[in-house]
Amino acid sequence: MQRFASIFGVFCAVTILGATAQAKDSFDFKSESFDLPAGERTFTGPGADPVNNNCLTCHSAGMVTVQPHLSKATWEGIVKKMINVYKAPVPEADVTPIVDYLSKGPSASK
Ligand code: HEC
Predict the structure, then answer these.
(1) CATH 3.40.50.880 corresponds to the domain 43-108
(2) Residue ranges per domain, the chain?
């Protein structure tokens, strides 16, 4: 019991000292503004609009243009994965135009 009391005492002292130390190091929050290096590349060519509207929110165009030539079914699978797995908010009506554009071979501005 004695042993428990002393261990408990040390525990309390450490906790209290820890809390005091933390209180002293309080933060000063200040606003900073900085520019992230924006991905400025956009998809180009006929039918690029729905792709620009839906596919540049989370990653750059390069993530798409770096892919090899893929079949329509594969692109459809990728677009569905973006929607179902990564929760890309792509309107249903845009899915077919996006898949059509991608399966013709996506291109992006430099
Ligand atoms: C909600 C965020 C989000 C949106 C919007 C989004 N993606 Fe993705 N995408 C991801 C994530 C996360 C990955 C995986 C990144 C990694 O593996 O490093 C990814 C990866 C990819 C890849 C790489 C290959 C693969 O299968 O992982 C391709 C191609 C791709 N996305 C295409 C698209 C297209 C086309 C669209 C528009 C329909 C789109 N993405 C919209 C999140 C998104």
Answers:
(1) no
(2) 43-108
Q: Which atom of ligand 1 is nearest to the CA of 90?
A: 38
Q: Show the low-confidence residues of the chain (pLDDT under 50).
A: none
Own/partner pairs, 50-59, CB within 8 angstroms, 24+ separation: 50/94, 50/97, 50/98, 50/101, 51/98, 51/101, 51/102, 51/106, 53/94, 54/88, 54/89, 54/90, 54/91, 54/94, 54/98, 55/82, 55/88, 55/98, 57/88, 58/86, 58/88
pTM (two decimals): 0.74
Cα-to-centroid distance, 65 and ligand 1 (Å): 11
Please list every protein residue whose CB sits less than 6 Å from any atom of ligand 1: 54-55, 57-59, 63-64, 67, 78-79, 81-82, 86-88, 90, 98, 102
